[in-house]
Amino acid sequence: MNMEAFLNHLVAKYNFWLYIILMMIGLYAMIAKNNLIKKLVGMNIFQTAIILFYVSIGSKRGGTIPILEHVSGGAQHAIDPANYVNPLPHVLMLTAIVVSVSTFGVALALAIKIYQRYKTLEEDEILTRIRES
Amino acid sequence: MILSGGLLLYATKDFPSWGDPTSPASTHVSPRYLKKSLEETRVPNVVTSILADYRGYDTMFETTVIFCAGVACFMLLRTFEKRETDHYYRHVPTGITIHIKGQREIPIESKEFEKIDAIWTPYDLIINTVSRFLVPFIQLFALYVIAHGHHSPGGGFQGGVILGASMIVLAIAFNLRTAVRRLGERIDSIMSALGVFIYSGIGALCVLLGANFLDYKALAQILPIDRVAARSDGILGVEIGVGIAVMAVMICVYNNVASEGRYDEGL
Amino acid sequence: MIWQLDLAILTLLIVCAVAAISVKDLLATAILFGAYSFMMCLLWSIMAAVDVAFTEASVGAGVSTVFFVAAVFRTTRRTKD
User: Is residue B137 part of a domain?
Assistant: First the structure.
């Protein structure tokens, strides 16, 4: 009985588990890697995994893209929202992608500044050089 | 990390199945947006109409965030000191390269000598001609994406990124100084502020005409069209503002990152 | 939403992500990161999120990879881990 419920969960929600694995990969890279740019890549993987999760919430089985059919200049047939994919998460995630690319640009500028000052990008070497000076 | 992953996996037990039409995300507000978008704003692309009209306040702050990122990159990296390497010049008619040691520039400025980067790749005919030929088409496509955002996927942000990418193509195929000569630093900064200004300007214009902030129905009082079409044109004006701001910021960030703020050499 | 295609691209995505943080050359990280972004774009196209896919294609495979390569060009290319 418990195994059956578990298998039901697995088949219906396997994609959520894969998204969570992706998030954990990003989190691991942010925490455990030494190089600053690898940490940046981990942060971006984390962000895009969360965006993927949100967009997948809005999808419907058998739904089509959220652009309404347009009968120009005449009566339009009634629009049934159940046929269209939910557009609200798409809008929020557009803003999230924009913020993600802005953060990436500023973080790269910071990394270049750090390299100019300490001549390395590894975190432990930067810490020793800070302690020495 | 394993602990947080385990907790998240346990939380998926309560999730609705994938693709369920009755999940809570799809039942409260979004059916109203889907039903009413065509008759209230005459814009078939529901994502654009939500982004620029129903949730236009968020998009204004998103444009401000992009502008702040451009300003932050500029303030972090821009310096005015010269690079401490030797200078290389090339005599154009004969192709001879002159290497001037120290940091002195060439004594006599004339049109025959052009400055080249220290890590110079030879003049490549195919890349130069093709990129110079392609850039107007890329920009035309970007303008199409901005303007046709009502009926097809696209909109202001995507078109702005493609416009910025067209200038970056020019900077990569030739050198950075050519691209900076085309679109200088001063015009770039003015354009990025102009994009945000257009967005909030349209919102303030709606307040001046008597309606709420960013309520495009009030624009029908100054433009000779009816109230529904005024919303569609308000969305178009806002998308143009977003596109200009995004293009300027992409070019500014690339210039600062690729040349470490000195604007003399690039990728 | 064909679930076989979805599963295949998701698996490829996870492989790309793990590879992008494990290689020792930062330029290879930049290229793998561009491939990761492109896989994301395909995934969203399958889920009928065309606006998001368009944005990710233009931003991820266009501008973000160029920024990354420019930054790697200005700092070092090797990394120790």
Answer: yes
